Amino acid sequence: MDFIASPYFPVLLAFLVNAAMMTVVSGMALVLGPKKPTKTKLEPYECGIPSKDSARTRIAAKYYLTAILFILFDIETVFLYLWAISFDKLGWFGVTEAGLFVATLLVGYVYIIKRDALRWE
Amino acid sequence: MTETNMPIIVQTIATVLKIFVLLGIALQVAPIMTWIERRQMAVTQRRLGPNRVGILPKLFNNWGFFGLGQPLADAVKLLFKEDFFPEGVHKTFYFLAPVIISTTAMMCTMGIPFGHSVVVFGQYIDLRPVSLDVGFLFLFAMSALGVYGVALAGWASNSKYPLLGGLRSSAQMISYEISMGLALIPPVLIFGTFDLQKIIALQAQGFWGIFYAPVSFLIFTVTMFAETNRLPFDLAEGESELVAGFLTEYGGMRWSQFFLGEYTMMFTLSALSTCLFLGGYELPFVTHEMLLSFVQKLTTLDVAFAQWIVVLINLGVLILKSAFFLLLFAQVRFTLPRFRYDQLMRLGWKVLLPIALANVVVTAIVLGFIRF
Question: Which of A31, B27, B217, B324 is the most buried (most CB within 10 A)?
Fold first, then answer.
């Protein structure tokens, strides 16, 4: 009974209800629809040109870089949330510390802009 | 079934009911919004829009109800369309991607409070299915998971356009998530809690959050459009360059599940914005106690029943306030042209991010002078 009383139990319950409902809707269409596959229908759509090679090829490293930068700044946001929730307790000390933290990250931010990591043209 | 188990049983039953209430609302948003959007588009662009399909047309002498039957007809059509796996797709991920997107969007909705807490069998019941001490951070966690659906849809399709669309879209979503997260720090500083119920109560005592943190509200509204892949940020499905982005290989019910996820996400973010900046489910200038006593006087019911009428009023207010954002979403779609991808990334990283950071620092310093 302990885990039912936990505040995280509704999360599990909601997940089960939602996931089941969405899977059933998706599966229903699979059962109800007609099945008339033809060769051209099953081809990947690439504007009518016969498709060459697999689409899962090497892709620009740019996206990887964006993901890495996202992790950096997202963790910064998480740390700032912790400070924000205890803002009243920490007082001016907290404001100074958070300011130093943001300033340190700003140095990194200026660096990635100087290195053109955010240029997409 | 001992006496001590009663509270847990009541709470669990209440949780299931709350889940279905919010699920019901969320599932209605997509069909109604598709109709509203097409009608609004028709008005804006001087076209007709859906105006033929009625509800029970025989019964009402063929009066079309302004085409309100259109979403129903669409749903039936989508359900009975051919559902096939194109050549070379990764079947598991191809099937899972739309399910992930719609499920995470629905999970997000589960954190929205839709009414003041009610008393049933002597127990307080908080009117939102998921009430954690991390509050609205739960919504962020769930909405961030939606990126997996987009990336998987692109990769699983085995076609070049979906792959590019999926990559672009996921890069866009994670880029704007930072600004979105930073934009909500000032409200936390001001209200001192993550709990949406407490934030709404504090706004009912003072002013709406939009007056305390207007810059946060603006940044959040902009990032809302990017997070849900709506115009002017719908680069993922830029028809002129990517056919339909990660949706290219999808059709029928699976395709519509992506849109179910998108519209649910729109509603959830609108409701979150309402709770943080526009006073949530509370009427302006009317406190919960005033409303309750007014309803009691009007209907001569006791508190046990009157509180449910108040819940209905709260629900209506929440939906009306969210509808403001939903109509804004729709109107912006017909008004603004699409951004170019480098413009989009520049706006996210070089404009919104510094503004959001500066907003946090300035709010902290001003609050420091007021409070310490």
Answer: B217
CA dist., res. B237 & res. B239, Å (int): 6
Residues of B in contact with A100 (CB under 8 A): none
- CB neighbour list of residue B190: distance below 8 Å, 6 or more residues apart: B209, B212, B213, B363, B367
Asked if residues A98 and A80 have their Cβ atoms less than 8 Å apart, the reply is: yes
Q: What is the CATH code for A2-114?
A: 1.20.58.1610
- Cβ-in-10-Å burial (0-12, 13-18, 19+) of B62 comes to exposed
Q: Report d(CA B307, CA A1) in Å as an integer.
A: 30
Show me where the domains of chain A are located: 2-114
CA distances from B277 to A93, B203, B210, B289 (A): 28, 8, 5, 21
- Tell me how far apart the alpha carbons of residues B326 and B89 are, in angstroms, rounded to a whole number: 34
Query: B160-176: per-residue pLDDT in tens?
Result: 788 888 888 888 888 89
- Is this complex scored with an ipTM above 0.90? no
Residue B1 has pLDDT above 50, yes or no: no
Q: Is residue B26 scored above 70 in pLDDT? A: yes
Cα distance between residue B1 and residue B23, in whole Å: 29
Rounded-to-10 torsion of CA A104, A106, A110, A116: 100
Alpha-carbon Rg for chain A in angstroms: 25
Mutant choice from A1, A8, A15, A22 vs B, greatest count of B C-beta within 10 A: A22
Kind and range of the H or E run holding A103: helix A87-114
Contact at 8 Å (CB) between A68 and B344?
no
Contacts of B178 in chain A (CB under 8 A): 70, 73-74, 77
